[in-house]
Specification:
- This protein is mostly beta strands.
- It has a single domain (23-227), classed as Porin.
- The protein is 6% helix and 56% strand.
- It is built from 1 helix and 12 strands, in the order αββββββββββββ.
- The longest helix is centred in the N-terminal third of the chain and has 15 residues, at 31-45.
């Protein structure tokens, strides 16, 4: 993402529409996880979760595909990244559990114009608060997410520019996903997250107008996690 020469935030891009490659061509990081869900399905359906409420500590890590959504996000493509962190799962009934998490997440996007390309690379601390509904050893989850920006960099060719000041330090969004949780503590999950407001700070243009580009974080996460405190 380019910034004006005066050092201000990134300028809005306008111009002819660019061809964006279909999303399906960039989903390869998630194929192994999908195959694992299919292979584990028979064993998961044969298991019944324990009834007593309990709180378990866990670790998780995985890969991400992130980009920007919004009116100013034309031409933005998905960029691969990583996430990892800790979670606490509290089973409050046979069907329902609550799970807060603290994750380090790499986010960003790619933009290609002819032979030129650029990348936006962001580092966040994500704090989702999720409600899970369990169906045997499968689950569905949803909840809000708060994100704290640690750094933002824009790369064009070999040039890397720190653009942290051009972006909001915090972001608010939502999370939804599906997964598999085995009684031995191992779990797999697929999740979508989206931002509810633009990540770019409003700024003054050269004409004295206030610009408010609409660029919202969005992405998919594939995770492996393990509940350390014994059987689920």
């Amino acid at each position: 993402m380019q910034r004006p020469r005066d050092g201000g935030p990134p300028a809005d891009r306008t111009g002819p529409a660019r061809r964006v490659l279909p999303f399906t061509s960039r989903m390869h990081p998630f194929f192994p996880l999908g195959a694992a869900l299919v292979l584990f399905a028979p064993a998961a359906l044969a298991q019944t979760p324990e009834a007593p409420p309990r709180t378990l500590l866990g670790l998780k890590a995985g890969s991400s595909l992130t980009t920007f959504r919004g009116a100013a996000a034309e031409g933005q493509r998905y960029k691969a990244g990583l996430h990892f962190g800790v979670l606490v799962n509290t089973r409050i009934s046979r069907r329902v559990s609550i799970q807060p998490e603290v994750l380090y997440s790499q986010k960003g996007s790619r933009l290609t114009e002819g032979a030129a390309s650029s990348q936006n690379r962001f580092s966040y601390v994500d704090v989702p608060l999720l409600a899970r509904v369990h169906f045997g050893c499968f689950y569905a989850e949803a909840g809000p997410q708060y994100s704290l920006l640690l750094s933002a960099k824009s790369r064009q060719g070999e040039a890397v520019q720190n653009v942290t000041d051009a972006f909001r330090t915090s972001d608010f969004g939502y999370v939804g996903g599906l997964g598999l949780q085995l009684r031995n503590g191992l779990g797999l999950g697929l999740r979508y997250h989206g931002g509810l407001r633009s990540t770019v700070r409003p700024y003054l243009t050269t004409g004295g107008r206030t610009a408010r580009p609409d660029l919202r974080n969005a992405g998919l996460q594939a995770s492996v996690f393990y509940l350390i405190s014994g059987r689920y």
